[in-house]
Amino acid sequence: MSDLLSYKNYNGTVEYSKEDNCLFGRVVGIKSLLSYEGNSIQELECDFQNAVEEYIEDCKERNIEPEPPYKGTFNVRISPELHRNIAIYAMEHGKSLNAAVEEAIGHMVG
Predict the structure, then answer these.
(1) Model confidence, pTM
(2) What is the chain's pLDDT, residue by residue, as a tens digit (110 residues)?
(3) CA dihedral (78, 84, 90, 96) positive or negative
(4) Which of 17, 16, 8 is nearest to 48 (CA)?
(5) Among 51, 56, 57, CA closest to 24
């Protein structure tokens, strides 16, 4: 089972451990490891929100900016043929490669 929780723009997974008979998850989209657990969805969601709040408070105490989830940059490995095709598409449409990829992803996920 896998789903996402959301709180203050942070997202976290929802997973089940049959071995431990509990729900658990981790915040995704940031480098820091934030994990949480619970015996019910309500407990899991509460622990998730507490993990996010503690992370933000810890950053504040250390006088650093909390890492924003999904900074908007990522590396993608694709086949040379697909790379060539998207590059040609971008040139033909007067767009940068980044703009063409963003457009394609936008069409895929809305």
Answers:
(1) 0.71
(2) 457 899 999 999 999 999 999 999 999 989 999 999 999 999 999 999 999 999 999 999 999 999 998 888 888 899 999 999 999 999 999 999 999 999 999 999 98
(3) positive
(4) 8
(5) 51
